[in-house]
Write a structure and sequence with these properties.
This protein has no helices and ten strands. With 124 residues, it is mainly β.
């Protein structure tokens, strides 16, 4: 029987190319960090989705900049599936944080779920 203590997956910082933030599933680690560019049309996509990645799952932390003027965020649809096939309505609030969870279900299918608009819990 294996006993695991404090297994922490490294977080991979996603660098953009012309405002396209590509999550490389070939990178070591399951968690990624994307910093959205202000004043730009940002696109989040995936690379290296194949049969060797089936079962890989994790989270993508999305951090908005302090100014979101003229800023958009979209997903490259590629092989991405969302609940009900819904479009992701990204939170466009300045300095907001969101999480996009993913699970590689098949060599050509990645399941996504978006949670945004995080706020501090009400204090007593």
């Amino acid at each position: 029987m294996a006993i695991f203590h404090h297994i922490i997956q490294p977080s991979v910082t996603v660098t953009h190319s012309s405002n396209t933030h590509t999550v490389d599933l070939d990178k070591r680690g399951n968690n990624y960090s994307v910093s959205i560019n202000s004043g730009a049309a940002n696109i989040i996509g995936f690379s290296n989705l194949d049969a060797t990645r089936v079962g890989k799952a994790g989270s993508i932390l999305i951090q908005n900049p302090g100014s979101m003027s003229n800023t958009t965020i979209t997903m490259d649809p590629g092989n991405a599936y969302t609940p009900g096939g819904s479009t992701i309505n990204f939170n466009l609030t300045a300095s907001a944080t969101a999480v996009l969870t993913y699970h590689v279900y098949a060599s050509n299918k990645i399941l996504l779920n978006y949670v945004g608009k995080f706020e501090l819990l009400p204090q007593p």
